[in-house]
């Protein structure tokens, strides 16, 4: 609870300062309580060029995207409805559904924030760029692009001309609304493909078979603190070869806690031995070093940093997970999400009577909104210590 109070105080202080300074900001920046938006036309020419050159191609892609969005909306609504049932009646089978807030639900380590930052930039840029390209492919003008911040939630946008959008055919509007989430799903699939062929991705610069365990982070106050460093590679402990994390676990189970053992490491391209006193694991009877690890892939060239595989493959993993989840959630027919606009177009197409289509839209919108809100709020209570990353 103290963490949440501190976080709330920081957020309130940030917005207070921003509101006081709004008169000194450029005219392109608009600031209101818990709402900041920056508009620009600098990227309009890029969107115009991309949308006009491959118009037939984009129409095919985004038409497929309509089907993907409808299917994704049904799928994620079912998944969240099922998870809501589990949260009420089978907690052991439920999964946490949470906003990712640095320091609260997102681990505040450098690596976690790096992966999160890279993923969010790629997700936002691809999502909004796709909306813009789809709009121009349909002959709909783009007024501006920009960034926004809603309380603590960052975002980006492409602002189409509302008059052009209203005049466009239902199919054209549906393609525009489906484009962003479809792009996120496509990026997730590309990231997953690269991730499943991870050794091929790093093979030009690294050996593809792990030859040790690389330290990505040393836990403060642990036996390793002050002795081992991030990006050291452990290749031998007490005379036993360490090729992967499985080897490391087996060795730590075999050697009694508090034993002093020689550990062979690679640091800065040089191999040497350190005398190390193992600790007692806080969660089991095995020995404990106090490190976070990753497979060590030996560089083929001396100038190649040994930590690159961790950041390359780690980024792909985060991009896959976050892009897939953002794409699916955005497909839900919930106010302010693209899925709501797409659902409105589809309902109006199916139900010709305006009053009936509006009622159907409201029922669908409020049902899905409650499913999403209840998942987040109940997850907060059921999994109070949940952290991602």
Task: Write a concise synopsis of the structure shown.
By secondary structure, the protein is α+β, with helices and mostly antiparallel strands. It has 11 helices and 12 strands.
How many beta-strand elements? Answer: 12
Q: State the major sheet.
A: 6 strands, antiparallel
Structural class: alpha+beta
The average pLDDT score comes to 90
**Rg of Cα set:** 25 Å
Q: Enumerate the spans where pLDDT stays under 50 for 5 or more consecutive residues.
A: none
Which quaternary structure do these chains form?
single chain
Number of domains: 3
Number of continuous helical runs: 11
Bulk shape: elongated
Q: Ends: how far apart?
A: 20 Å
Helix content: 40-55%
- Indicate the proportion of strand residues: 15-25%
What is the helix/strand order? HEEHHHEEHHHEEEHEEEEEHHH
